[in-house]
Amino acid sequence: MTEQRAGSAKSVFHFDVQGSVAKSTHAGLPWLRYIRERLGCRIHFWPFDGWTPTPGRSVIAEVYPSLWSRSLPKADRTPDQHDAWSVTEWLRRADVDGGLTEFLNPHLSPEDRETAAVEGWIMGLG
For residue 126, is it within any domain? Predict the structure, then answer.
């Protein structure tokens, strides 16, 4: 559902195609378990642990840099650096203007919210 709404985002099960994130995603999954084991309740995996993080917890969420990177100046950054900068700049702006709370609770039907809580969701995706 998330990939369909994002348009060009690739599924974590779509291996060996241009723009694929599957290998990186699957290589990173053991690290998520490691983080959960070490940090326990100090970490919030959004939206799997719920749509609204408990204050004081660090949040790990899926993001899709293409949602913002094309609209922000590239400067002298490499494409990977620009993607990382774009995500942090978007989060900074959303935090300053109060929009981050809305992005943590996207407007989804109850059925879509239930599906996304299992499948995952891309933060910032409308």
Answer: no
